[in-house]
Amino acid sequence: MASVPVLKKVDSEGASSESATSESGSEERLRPSSNSVNTDAHGTSIRSNSSGGERFEYSGWVYHVGVNSIGHEYCHFRFLRIRGRYVEMYKRDPSEHPGIKPIRRGVIGHTLMVEELGRRKLNHGDVYVLRFYNRLDETKKGEIACNTAGDARKWMEAFDHAKQQAEYEFSRGGSVRNKLNMEDEINLEGHRPRVRRYAHGLKKLIRIGQGPEVLLRKASSLGTDGRLDAYFDADGGDVVEAHEWKCVRTINGVRIFEDVASPKCDKGVLVKAVGVVDASADTVFEVVLNPDRHRRYEWDTLTGDLELVDSVNGHFDVVYGTFDPRYFTWRQSRRDFVFSRQWVRGQDGTYTILQFPSVHKKRPPRSGYKRTKINPSTWEISNLSTSSPSNTARCLVTQTLEISPKGWFKWRNKHCQKFEKTVPYALLSQVSGLKEYIGANPALTSESSTTIIHSKVSDFSGSHSEFEDAEGADEFYDAIAGDSSSSDEGSDNEVEVNKEKKIKLKNISWAIASLTLKRSSAPESNELNSNVPPISLDSSQFHGTMKKAKDESDKNCWSSPDGSGFMIRGKTYLKDNMKVKGGEPLLKLIAVDWFKVEDCASKVALHPKSLVQSPEGQKLPFILVINLEVPARPNYSLVLYYAADRPVKKDSLLGKFIDGTDMFRDSRFKLIPSIVEGYWMVKRAVGTKACLLGKAVTCKYLRQDNFLEIDVDIGSSSVARGVISLVLGYVTSLVVDLAIVIEAKEEAELPEYILGTVRLNRVQLDSAVPLEA
Fold first, then answer.
1. pTM for the model
2. Each residue of 241-258: pLDDT tens digit?
3. Going from the N-terminus, what domains does the chain have, and what CATH number goes with each?
């Protein structure tokens, strides 16, 4: 197997620490065709004008964190810059120190994965950590940290854009392909105008973050939402939900809703408060998560006294707090509570915070206080597009909770004032308090951590030629994972962290940075060879370890619903972001395996007892095998087998996906989840948005004979592990629908279609069958 191009560490004079051999040939210069700059309501976009496309440059200050060769943790302030598919790390801002050489540099390849590890304590403050690793070898890894969740998100999008640039340059072939030194070749027989336009010329420089001195003050600067990508879906979910929300009251500009579709029972009523806040989702997320009492006193009338008890990981913590006594009678006025918070950020930038009642050994019952078990609740914070000339950031904030129906119905129908003195009412009022607090603090919305600067193409040419002369043998994860105990890292502008987590801050005065509804039609004619007569696909001829459902009441079984419950991109999506209901799946689900394994099982299709290896399976024109590797104790594998009744066209989108590179597959393989029946908190955790799995978790592909297997390692993401652990706790009562889609990014590929679906009906964990070696 060919080695992956990586980032080499270089000394302070710019020389490589390893010998490099020059390669023959030179890359064609990429020059801009116009000087125009396109921006969208959220910041920037890579969509281009008619005369040409745009290349972006991203730069800003980050923390480079890790452990050196003698076991000490280090934390360095570093200036990171991405230009095209190239990455450079500096000790100084090169725009302020012309001629400075990078201490690390290299290329971004298709095997680079970026994982968001969430919040971590550093220097008595919170930072947001990104982990880089090789999808084929996770031992090669490294970490950087950002001051805010918004900056971490922007860096993830920046690396994603760089991978798209690498995909384009790889598709050009020739000497460029030899330089990238990649294993697979992309099969792009058709014209891909947007990728080509994107790859031409340097047009924008996007500065992420504000620099070390600002980082030390921990000042949030997320006033505007600098969303960098043009591929995320429009507002609204990708699933047709069963909830029917009715507005029953408005309070201080916040709407109060009740779910009138759910059957009424004694357990509780599902209600939510919804308000528009004039700030980005990043800003609101920081405010909601911050336990600082002085800030919470300004907007939270109920839980102002909060204390962080334990941080389980970057996306999960435990909090202790006390209630305001005015919501209780004098005999029970002193009450406290413990709850856990788990949060995720979707690929569209939406934050979801799940709050559960909890217990913790560090906070046993307190003398003089009555321990209260709070009801589960969720926060959902999503950015809204804006058409205002100032591009002022706005977001939609939704708090959902389940409350007792006793006082709720009296208050809703008769305006009973007693309900307004209860804890549920105080919780619903938090959105209103948050809206007013942020509106009264312009500093939260006026500061921007991203500035767009026009740049000349010559700025890129020099660095580009440097990489042409060097052997691209290292990738970015190697560079940031390198030992930082060497002399070139040991400057006086750094932070050293020892084993006891003690941090020494030294002089950093140099580091002040400059800122700145129809249904989709069936696609058989476009994707499958219509000149070949279809074969009969009878699922009774194929057998898996999980049975097929006899009817809707059957349990521990599977079925394949149509695509009408899912929303996919319509024919005019690139113009108006319109989505339509999906139609019948292109591929037919013929069997499902439910395995129990010690370690994550991959290459299931090669197992002698696999359906793919059976005589019936070998006769099929094409089989798509989806292996969802579920982390648990023990581990599980849910294997879905989708079959085509005719051969796949080589020049179709599905054909390109089947025979394309892993990078191309990662950018197109989309899963839409839907909890049809189940606990409402699980629905909120899973969400209703499509997910590009190749960008969220590690996916490995196996293409042989008449099949393509996709091994989806859900455990490769800490966020996905948290969500799946919640789902497994309720799995016996859940009805889950999944839809598989190849994302369409070009007008010729629209409308999208449903590739395959599956419904999992109340799965029993103990019914999993061991997978024999």
1. 0.73
2. 777 889 988 888 899 999
3. 8-18+34-221+450-505 (2.30.29.30), 245-445 (3.30.530.20), 529-770 (no CATH)
